[in-house]
Amino acid sequence: MKGRRSREPAPPFSAQALRAVERRGLSRRDWRDLYYALMTMPVSALLGLLAGIFALANLAFALLYFETGGIAGARPGDFGDDVFFSVQTLSTTGYGVFYPKSLAANIIASFEILGGLLGTALATGMLFARLSRPQARVLFSRIAVIHPRGGTDTLIFRVANQRRNHITDARMTVTITRDETDEHGQSLRRLIDLPLERDRSPAFSLSWTVMHRITEQSPLHGLDVEAMLRANIVLICMLNGIDDTLMATIVARHIYSPADLRFGRRFADIFDRREDGSFAIDYTRFHETID
Asked: Cα–Cα distance between 81 and 99 in angstroms, integer?
């Protein structure tokens, strides 16, 4: 099996490709799925959104105080004093120089305090949910190789645990997706699981070499890069297990396109034995291949 690297569009299961898909006939009312939108946006964007809501809320309430008056200690016509009073009220910090003295000001302050309590609870819960989610720090080799092993071509890629702990009961699945046409001439995308030489590790801590033997029963048998590109084949690799530090399930995913395959190459050795008999792993060569 020989092939060369070719340029191709983003794999169909990548985030970039999914965002580029035109979805017709679906309503784009993202506000109905607000929680999902908040959970998936970058943390910096979430913090910016919360800061913006806080600023706008204070400006809105400050405008109400400015129009109705009734804030003791505020200088007449000074909008800044009303803004600072609103900040103290919304955050339920308590009053020093400023405090409400009229009925209208007390009613507005009561609504603002209620909004501040609810907003603080929601913002705290959202940030905690974002920051407390277990994140897998699993490193996949940037490329996969195909070379003869034991007389049979074998698909091989490497995975490493970047934390100094164990992933208990780690399980690896590799699925290929390819375009096919059924008997009615309709296009469909088929998913086929690849059998692995070892698909489970009771305690994944350092490095894992994942291998699939390309026998005659393998859907990759006899295919080169050009044939894979024509069939729009991609490899979806999923690792899941239990982080023994957090005691939470973690999931890691990586996608290999035909352009990420190296035919006839082997991975460089990353294990080294020291003079005292202990082992060392050189992760700087994790993605390196040799003839």
From this structure: 11
